[in-house]
């Protein structure tokens, strides 16, 4: 080999090394960016943040035309948790729910690894509704320990972006990270909610009611609208416990809660305030409207006895104190206004009890 040949070979080797170094640097950059995206998902604390990070964040950072997140939610639990977080589901068109993955796309019939391939309207339109011009898709299973909790779906206008022969390891890894993040924020949301709900009736508890009352007062103040408060107490509940036992007492509490619930609107807030005491907040209800509602509730509770499995018949009645307020714009302390509203309802409840129970009494309107 001549010296010139040797020099040419060295130059060629140097060129190849240069290409390899550049590839390694590009891979490292990509790896670092992927790690950053995955960390963003893992760091989210609420369901709302996570859904935004997935649906909007991944779409922007991967430069995709569409991203959807399909969650299996047969008991509607995730939806309830999201609503409890005050999230408006309509703000996230990419967020989809189903009782099962089957039927949502044929690829889900046997779904253990990410599926990459051409977009087909007949197969994938449920996952990307409202998106046009998609040419290729990646469907990534979400779930751990053989339990599918949903799928993360990427849609691209580039037909080569997701093709069948591409490696799927990176997407499978992203799926695992997304699954862990989803599980973690759902558990966190469950914990928060369990601190705000009553185990016996499933209703919100006093802590939640106090927070909600302040929010509703602030809203009523902004809109210059009334807010009514109904304080509902079972009559002679102690004697139900004494006569039939504590378990039947629990059943009566649950039944009474359901009968109250059947009379109120979705925008009303209801909570178990204490032992046999419930509160209903009715936004935008005047005293007159609240009295009509309270009378409906009173009748619904007493109209039929509760028949328990032993055949025993438990008659239930409630007394209700009603108060309403239109918080003035000048009202500086909504905490005080909340206390005043509850105290007025409590005063009216006391009068209902004194007057013989199974009746509704109104407090004087507060300014
Ligand atoms: N079974 C059951 N009983 C409860 C629960 N929480 C509180 N109680 C009972 O509910 C009863 C409430 O009694 P009070 O509200 O003081 O009085 P009352 O017998 O309802 O009579 P009035 O309110 O004056 O009509 C008490 O005996 C409590 O022990 C519960 O979760 N389950």
Structural class: alpha+beta
Estimate what percentage of residues fall within beta strands: 15-25%
Largest sheet: 5 strands, mixed
- Spell out the helices and strands N to C: HHEHEEHEEHHEHHEEHEEEHE
Count every helix, treating DSSP H or I runs of 4 or more residues as helices: 10
Query: How many domains comprise the coordinates?
Result: 2
Q: In what order do the strands lie side by side in the largest sheet?
A: 2-1-5-4-3
State the end-to-end distance: 103 Å
The name of the CATH topology of the largest domain is Alpha-Beta Plaits
Average pLDDT score:
90
Task: Name the ligand types.
Answer: guanosine-5'-triphosphate
CATH architectural category of the largest domain: 2-Layer Sandwich
- What percent of the residues sit in helical stretches (DSSP H or I)? 40-55%
Which oligomerization state do the chains in this entry correspond to?
single chain
Fourth-level CATH superfamily of the largest domain: Reverse transcriptase/Diguanylate cyclase domain
Protein name: diguanylate cyclase
Domain GGDEF: 225-365
Pfam family, one: GGDEF
GO biological process, one term: cell adhesion involved in single-species biofilm formation
